[in-house]
Amino acid sequence: MTVPSLLRSRWAALGVLSATMLMTILDGSIVTVALPAIQDDLGFSPAGLSWTMNAYLIPLGGLLLLAGRLGDLIGRRTLFLAGNAVFTAASVLAGAATTSGLLIAARFLQGVGSALASAVVLGIIVTLFTDTRERTTAIGIFSFTGAAGASIGSVLGGVLTDALSWHWIFLINLPIGVATILLALPALPRDRGLGLSAGADLAGALLVTSGLMLGIYTVVKVESHGWISAHTLGLGAVSLGLLTAFVARQARAATPLMPLRILRSRNVSGANAVQLLTLSAMFAFQVIVALYMQQVLGYDALGTGLAMLPAAVLIGAVSLFASARLSNRFGERAVLMAGLVLLIGAMLWLTTVPVDADYVTDLLPVFVLIAGGGLVLPSLAGLGMSGARPDDAGLASGLFTTVQQVGMALGVAVLTTLAASRTETLRADGRDAAAALTGGYHLAFGVSAGLLVAALAVAALVLRRPPQAPASDGAAEPSTTTVKA
């Protein structure tokens, strides 16, 4: 195969898409390690520092559904390239920031760019890989890069911050972003899109984007205001009202942003429900385990990242080398349920960790069981996209990624709040700080196990094994796009 033809192959396109996922996931995890250095340099208050994360999360979660539909309308390749350009430029702006306000603004733009690019990635993958076995392999490789980004980010953030400065955790995105754009130009197939007239529901876009952004903002501020405060209840009610109005509009709009027919598929609706429950538990697990190791066991930031590295490596290895083979043999639904059982075991194990835990005997077995995530994530992506019509692939991709981000935000907000409340109660009962913190974390892990049990029940009762597609001859021609050589 010549170099030009290699660059135009489906597997080269998958590499480009995976590189973008690596960049965005790495950006999320790399920032957490550098937060103390950013605070010292730019003079953030403790409350203001959280906005270096929230300013990225709010537009990312709020714009994904709109971005997914825009990909169907104007072309997924066009939106992917635009999103990468915005993300890369915003990363340079963040790396050059000299004030807290400029950094927060740059992080917001990063979230916008990430939403535009990541919303259409799964849609591009499923239109490129029409054969069931190849698609399963492609999704496994794609999921592996997500785990790789999380593991690399936790270590690289500490290395760059200590060796150079926190500015480089953002500037490192410049060469990755430029290379991704240059490689995407020949690798990604040109697609016409359906045209804005096929679904340019501006009122619906305003309702869902404002509703999601307000909802995520409300969730991330719960820690400051509490669950039953006027702030949380009031903004939560407004957000719910906006989303309800969006659903009502979609039922009667001539060109809906999100045709409700997509939710009639058991696999689309079921996979998104399972994903919401699973990622609420799993993302909170990452945060709470890190807090436990630092606040109870006394690990530093870099030590915590290295300690959690086996979990990320195992998730990545399982998703890359085992998930596709197992799914092709036993079906994605069975593999998903097996992975959920492993994750439930990990959460239940964590409800027993002591104040003076030993890493090898108390924590390492948990990180081995967490490898079940390498079975869960690719299976969910395959099941969720299997029920979408070809012309709804971008929308289904955006919906799937939206639920992913909302689940992460909800999980962290709910479980950290429960842990903090339990800790305060135990402190009031006379427990020392370490024992009270551990008790709070035990509660959070127990609730995480409950969420995963609910996810397992939904998977068993709702999801169905998708029909096997006929083997392809290697061509990649999605039915609703025009692919040019």
TrEMBL record:
Any one GO cellular component localisation term in the record: plasma membrane
Residue intervals of the Major facilitator superfamily (MFS) profile domain: 13-467
Domain of life: Bacteria
Keywords attached to this entry: Cell membrane, Membrane, Transmembrane, Transmembrane helix, Transport
Main location: membrane
Molecular function terms from GO: transmembrane transporter activity
Localization per record: Cell membrane
Matching InterPro entries: MFS (IPR011701), MFS_dom (IPR020846), MFS_trans_sf (IPR036259)
Name of the protein described by the UniProt record: MFS transporter
Originating species: Actinomadura soli
Taxon lineage: Bacteria, Bacillati, Actinomycetota, Actinomycetes, Streptosporangiales
